[in-house]
């Protein structure tokens, strides 16, 4: 079968909806990293839950992968859901040695979110695979590259996929991951874009948490 691994930092507003969206025949693992809210208590109603004191999303994903019983892993952000037909298509892939991503769209249909999701969905054509809230990988490839690089906190999905592609075939699943537009709502489209562009070019800072 398939294991869903969800890192969560203070996601009490989103975690329940995300977990309910995953069918119960899939293993669900939530790793709370540095949570100070009710995320842990909510998540344990629906999933296996671990608690890490340090806020490090890559370490949380790696810890969740160690807990996983299955040989096909889906790493899902706590504010991200998959379109319903995604689960059926993932089951068709579960016995293959793959690493991949989904198409992306935001949970609110505004011009800004539509424009950015369109941009995100073009990136795989240029071999830039950042995941946008959801990526999948065979456990074989995950173990070969020893998981996510815990020393980086930005662009870790892209870096992970590039390394995993040495041991697994890349696959772009045409189903959607539906993610929260909260960053646009809080910061605005242009500030969000400017921040990502600046940090992509100059680096070193973690993304500010939007809760």
Task: Please explain how this structure is put together.
The structure is a single chain. The protein is 37% helix and 24% strand. The chain has a single domain (3-182), classed as Alpha-Beta Complex (Spore Coat Polysaccharide Biosynthesis Protein SpsA, Chain A). By secondary structure, the chain is an alpha/beta fold. The protein has an 8-stranded mixed sheet with strand order 3-2-1-4-7-6-8-5. It is globular. The chain starts with a strand and ends in a 9-residue tail after the last helix.
Question: Would you spell out the secondary-structure blueprint of this structure?
Answer:
Blueprint: E1 3-8, H1 15-20, E2 27-33, H2 39-43, E3 48-52, H3 57-67, E4 72-76, E5 80-82, H4 85-93, E6 98-106, H5 111-122, E7 134-138, H6 139-144, H7 156-164, E8 169-179, H8 182-187, H9 189-202
Parallel strand pairs: 1-2, 1-4, 2-3, 6-8
Antiparallel strand pairs: 4-7, 5-8, 6-7
